[in-house]
Amino acid sequence: LHLSAVKLAELHSDLKIQEKDELSWKKLKAEGLDEDGEKEAKLRRNLNVIMTKYGMNGKKDSQLVDTNYIKEGTESDTLDDPRLEKLWSKAKTSGKFSDEELDKLWREFKHHKEKIHEYNILLETVSRTEDIHKNVINPSEENLVKEEILHNKHRELKEKLRSINQGFERLRKVSHQGYDTTSEFEEPRVIDLWDMAKSANFTEKELESFR
C-alpha cells in the first residue's frame, strides 16, 4: 500500500475499532436485535470507508481526504435482481405502507442487495484461488494451509448464502404482509389468497370456511 508509519498506525487503530464494533454486532444478532439489518449495513459502510480511506478498495487514487461522509449503500437505485424488483413494486402499490415504512423497507432492500454483492465478490475470489491452487503440482505445508483457508472461505460462503435466503424470505413476508405484526397470516402466498378471497363474492360463512 506504500503507507507511511503514521498511516499504518491509523489503519491499525481503525481496524481495531471496526473489529470491536463487529463483535458487539454479532452479540446483538445472536439475540435477534438486528432483524432489519440496519446495524449490519452500517458496519459494512464503515468498512467501505476504511478501505477507501487507505486505498484498499482496488481503485487508484481513491484515498479520501474527508472520511466523514460516504454515500449510503450503492450508487445505483436499482436492485439488480428481478425477484427483488418484483417484490418492491408489489410493496409500493399495495397500500400497506406509510411513506416512512416504505423508506424503511427500501433500506432493507438495499441492504439485501449489498449482501448479494458481497457474496458474489467472495465467490469470485474463492473461484480464482481454487484455480491457482489446482495448478500447483507439489504439495507442501504452505499448500495445506491454503487448503484450510479455502475450506474456511467455503464455510463463509455457505453462511452468507443462508443469510441471503433468510433475508429474502423476510423481505417476501414484509412486502406481502406489511410491518403490521397483528396480521393473522404470515406466509406470503396465503396472504395473497386471503386478499383475493376477501375481494371475491363470498358469503360470510364461505369466507369463514376459507379462513
Automatic annotation (TrEMBL):
Entries under InterPro entries matching the protein: A2-macroglobuin_RAP, Alpha_2_MRAP_C, MG_RAP_rcpt_1, RAP_D2, RAP_sf
Superkingdom of the source species: Eukaryota
Molecular function terms from GO: heparin binding; lipase binding; low-density lipoprotein particle receptor binding; receptor antagonist activity; very-low-density lipoprotein particle receptor binding
Domain Alpha-2-macroglobulin RAP C-terminal: 79-211
GO biological process: negative regulation of receptor internalization; negative regulation of very-low-density lipoprotein particle clearance
Start and end residues of each Alpha-2-macroglobulin receptor-associated protein domain: 2-61
Gene Ontology, cellular component aspect: cis-Golgi network; endoplasmic reticulum-Golgi intermediate compartment; endosome; plasma membrane; rough endoplasmic reticulum lumen
Pfam families: Alpha-2-MRAP_C, Alpha-2-MRAP_N
CDD domains: RAP_D2 (cd14807)
PANTHER family: ALPHA-2-MACROGLOBULIN RECEPTOR-ASSOCIATED PROTEIN
Protein name (record): AMRP protein
Species annotation: Neodrepanis coruscans
